[in-house]
């Protein structure tokens, strides 16, 4: 019997209007199904549609490593993602932990709808994208509602001040279950002023806090972690990736 011909692959490259401006999807030549999402000309997410465990941005791989050394393989975690963009990390979590529930706060509702349409996002409740401001969602979470919170929110190249203030960290700590993990993507420069400010704010609500920074760091992404549980496992796992630990838990 002759093989049924494959349906032609949908073409998704192009520019799309969103609530905050323009989203652009660029096909990447190095791999079939690989795309870069730009939001208002700023690279936001890189992913491979049929391979949710492939994470091309370094900081996403660091966060993924932290999650995998923290959450048991057979768990069904609830994870809150503050900042959605292309939903690379929600897709990763949904694939590694098939029984997980991922709640994604994406302020730009049109962007959230676009991403769900073109990037093969698992349906709710595995990945639920809501159009809401990240701080508002965090404060609205019930006590002990989630196992992990991942913050990846930027306005330009900085995190909004409301998402790095002590009050925000109090709300995040309250929303986490005992042993829960908070992770944040923090952009910084060599002097690490933003990292140290985040560590100070996080210390007001969490017993254990640390930041993870590439060696010979001059500018770019770092990861801040916080929990009521010691971060020993994270220090070891991220150290193997070449990151140095900054903070009292190192």
UniProtKB/TrEMBL annotation:
Please indicate which superkingdom the organism of origin belongs to: Bacteria
- InterPro entries membership: SAM-dependent_MTases_sf
Q: What is this protein called?
A: Spermidine synthase
């Amino acid at each position: 019997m002759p093989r049924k011909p494959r349906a032609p692959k949908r073409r998704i490259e192009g520019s799309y209007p969103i609530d905050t401006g323009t989203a652009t999807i660029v096909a990447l030549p190095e791999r079939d199904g690989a795309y870069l999402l730009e939001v208002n000309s700023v690279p936001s997410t890189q992913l491979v549609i049929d391979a949710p465990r492939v994470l091309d941005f370094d900081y996403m791989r660091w966060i993924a490593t932290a999650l995998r050394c923290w959450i048991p393989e057979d768990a069904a975690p609830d994870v809150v993602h503050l900042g959605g963009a292309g939903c690379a990390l929600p897709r990763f979590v949904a694939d590694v932990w098939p029984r997980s529930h991922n709640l994604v706060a994406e302020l730009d509702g049109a962007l959230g709808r676009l991403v769900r349409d073109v990037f093969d996002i698992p349906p709710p409740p595995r990945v639920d994208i809501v159009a809401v401001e990240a701080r508002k969602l965090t404060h609205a979470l019930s006590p002990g509602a989630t196992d992990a919170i991942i913050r990846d929110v930027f306005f330009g190249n900085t995190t909004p001040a409301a998402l790095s203030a002590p009050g925000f960290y109090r709300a995040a700590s309250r929303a986490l279950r005992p042993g829960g993990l908070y992770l944040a993507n923090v952009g910084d420069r060599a002097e690490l002023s933003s990292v140290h400010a985040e560590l100070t704010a996080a210390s007001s609500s969490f017993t254990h806090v640390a930041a993870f920074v590439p060696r010979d760091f001059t500018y770019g992404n770092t990861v801040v972690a916080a929990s009521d549980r010691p971060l020993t496992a994270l220090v070891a796992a991220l150290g193997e990736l070449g990151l140095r630990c900054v903070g009292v838990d190192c």
